[in-house]
Design a protein that fits this description.
By secondary structure, the protein is of the alpha+beta class. The protein is built from three helices and four strands; from the N terminus they run αβαββαβ. The protein has one domain: Alpha-Beta Plaits (2-Layer Sandwich), CATH 3.30.70.
Length: 91
């Protein structure tokens, strides 16, 4: 029992160490007007774990910083798609 409690305590302490802040650039080619970036930014910002979102209309991209323990690139892309703006990872 003591070993189990020790393992659980260690996992609770170490879990935040496994999480990392990541930044991804998403291409959002469907942005066609000056209002589109506001919709894209709002959709991404609603994803749990997102820390920062910068949307550039001229480049048709969104740069997103997020906690990978709470969010994923797939969730970010799903958020833009749900808002009507499919996106993909830019390399």
């Amino acid at each position: 029992m003591k070993k189990l409690l020790a393992a659980l305590a260690f996992a609770a302490i170490a879990a935040p160490v496994w999480a990392a802040t990541q930044t991804v650039t998403l291409g959002v080619p469907g942005m066609t007007c000056a209002a589109c970036p506001f919709t894209v930014k709002a959709a991404i910002a609603r994803v749990a774990g997102v820390d920062k979102v910068n949307v550039n209309f001229d480049k048709r991209e969104a740069v997103v910083t997020f906690d990978d323990a709470k969010a994923s690139v797939q969730k970010l892309m799903q958020a833009t798609e749900n808002a009507g703006y499919p996106s993909s990872v830019k390399r």
